[in-house]
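Help!! Second protein's tokens look totally different from the first
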Amino acid sequence: MAKTPRTWSGARSPSGLKRVRQATRRREVLAPRRSAAKTYVAKALTAAATADSEITTTALIEALSALDRAAKVGAIHPNAAARRKSRLTVKVNAALGGSSVSTGGRVTKQTGKARAALSKTARAEAAAAREATTTTETAPSKPARSTTKASATKTTAAKSTAKATSTKSTARKTTKS
């Protein structure tokens, strides 16, 4: 019945062996996601130590999204992702000028000003970027559309002229023969 030698101390039934194979494959898929999330969190903490708000904000956003992705696919529990995101945000806000973070097991609540300032900054930068892209896209795109229409009408007229001349030449060839 068992397909493995007697030295094997794990599963012996076919369904148990299948579960072992499934767990191995799942571990191969999920372990890199967990590792990536940890790496992004470490990068965010390192960036927070530099006290450069732009770099820290982008690193924080990357770390939060990596934690969300890991929780979405099941690499970590959603509550664990939420806890890690909360603790990371508290540490980053403290590094950017908020209240100090206690090194004990329990994290004290922080005043909302630093968190709100970080959120406002991120929102303001995103709005400015969106406004800049819409401004640059709308101005040149209008003439490009009109030239495209004009060139399309010119090519259509050229095609109809070419068809008419080819029809005439075909008619001449048939009358000559």
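Here's the second one for comparison:
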Amino acid sequence: MKTRSKPRTKMVRRRRRSYKFKDLVSELPDDILHRIISSLSIDEALRTSILSKRWIHLWKNAMHLDFDCTHMIKTLSKIAIISGVEIEKYGKIVNTVLNQHIGNLTSCYFKHFAPSIWLGDLRTWVEFVVERKKLTCLSLECKTSIYVDSKIVKAAYDYLKPKLFSNLCSLELTNYKLKKTVLLAFQSCEKLKILKLKNIAMENSTINGILKNCFGLEKFSLLDSNGFSSLKIENQNLKFLELLRLNVKEIYVNVDDLQVVVIDSIVCTPKGFRFYSQNLLSFSSTCNAQGNSFLKTQDILENCSDLLVSSLQIYYFLLWL
């Protein structure tokens, strides 16, 4: 008995040809599309302009811009040495995108080459997005390279305008050497709630001056940083504190309403670590490095009576539950 597979196949093909796929994404409102584009890196966001006439200018209204030099310059994945061509190309792309962007920004991320600092490009970009784009969240990262002389990586904010960061709610800095002149940009930073410093070289007066100016901080993270020997934290609005891989002589923390503390691989004498907080809810102390000089959890609890009392209160509360 013969089968009718061929006629059925023809019918399926006809149905497929007659069926029209709808572009549901393009039918979304502009506000939602702006949010979708804002989640992309700038090179991916620019590619969306070729999808259709409607998408040509949508990226210009993105609420977040992500300038990652490792994504923007394709040759970086193939060569190890950074040449002036890549640096110049990165700068031109950033300038073009910022000049064509429409409206304000909520957040912006710059991962740039070290020469962008002493060339003055970084300073220009930061001042542009903060002052003209009404930015509230800013993340800056210098792409370090063994082929770049260490003398080139100077203070990132030597000549920034006073009170430049005063309207920011969140600031993250990675791979910089900060001088005391940076304190001018941190003047009147009571609006700054989140501050994260990673791999930062600075002196005692710089780090403690920043914390003093940012008295409204609620979350502070200090990771892999050096150059200072004393850390003083008395920000009374602070709720979250993270200290990772630091080598200091003393750490003084006096915050009544501090709730969460995370400590990892800290080199400090037990008596040099002084901690005062009465409302602590979570305390974590670990050491992921080898060596006898690292601060132990037992030493922290023994030398910080308030911390021990808070830990016992949490313990008994959990037992009661």
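Reply: Different proteins will give different token patterns, so don't panic. The first helix runs from residue 5 to 18.
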